Automatic annotation (TrEMBL):
This is CehA/McbA family metallohydrolase. SUPFAM superfamilies: PHP domain-like. Residues 124-186 form the Polymerase/histidinol phosphatase N-terminal domain. It comes from the Bacteria. It holds the Pfam family PHP. NCBIfam families: CehA_McbA_metalo. Transmembrane segments: none annotated.
Amino acid sequence: MQQNFVLTHTISHEEELQYIEVPFHMPNGIQTLLVNYEVKSLGPEKCVVDLGIKDFIRVRGWSGGARREFYIGKNLATPGYVSGHCMKESGRFFLGYEIPKEGCQVIITVSLEGEKEEVGWLIGDLHLHSTHSDGSYTIEENGKIAEEKGLNFIALTDHNTISQNFADESAGNILFIPGMELTTYKGHCNLYGVKDPLKDFRATNWEEITNLLQEARNNGCKISINHPFDQYCPWEWEWDVDYDWVEVWNGPWTEGNERALQWWQEQLVQGRKLVVVGGSDCHRPHPYVKQGMPTTWVYSNAKSVSSILDAIHKGHVYLTYAPWGPQMEFTCGQAKIGDTIKAKGKMELTVNKLQEGDIVKVISNIGIEQEFKMANVQRLELSWDIEERTFYRVEIWRYFLEVEGYLMAALSNPIYIQQGE
């Protein structure tokens, strides 16, 4: 949805050095506000008109006469303007400065863009570091590399810092998800969706870590436990902390990821509904740890932070080793990955971009139910009737010459099955 309108306002000389407010109406559901303006003197003298904008709470930006246009989005804005939810119902431009005796006319052109419905699958990296902590890539460099790889979003999760969330740097069409990696001596977790999630990061005992996670939750964060079985920095706190998701795939597929996968399967068999995610944890140039490896695929209704995080929370997620990895559609009627269905119907699985030798596994609460080793075809289509199971999920394994063995190439969250009435 895109709307455009033009406001024309005349300023008299008597209003010079005042802040003239020009109200405008904002429809619901607006994601981005793009503004440009033109000033026409009504006499021979030149004039200068400054421009700013406010919502019903506060001033959202001011560029004076330095800019002829600006934008405000949920996550990015022109320097000098504050990003975030656009003005609800109404807003006001304010104008002023040097006005000739005959006055002047200001023409303000406004373009409004709303959320797009049913964007579908968006891809990104949920775990990246920058020069704001111990990474060597700037925010702009991370964004540029992500865009070159075809990603739609990235989360900058620098260690125990939030400065990256307030930086002015940006990169093309990449959506930046605010993040922070809460890094303690007994484990790491990512806090998503809030620019300033914590006032202090230090936790050395159980009471402190639970209080920090409660603070993050109260501030609106989604919480993901990172690389819980990593060799060097595992999750050593108890598991009965407050969290939403678990990062079972961190960087290249390793023994730590394998242990996380086995643990997750045990949780699913016990009846838990637990969303798993992945992230590269890329800090600096490395032959195997790279942006977008693994890639998180999210079925989202809009390319916005809130929509993407909401879709992840619903489990509408699968992971691939890279943006060019296998692509899957796993459904049961209208239900998709992450949904819960009744114990009837037919499961449908379509996988594209397979390679010869790839192994596709369909797994349930009783273990591996189907397994196919691909010949010289790049596409697999399967369907089967739902049995007395509590979930189905999919794994795809691929032979990689670099390790002379099979590694995970794609991994889905489950479709859950409701038993009984």
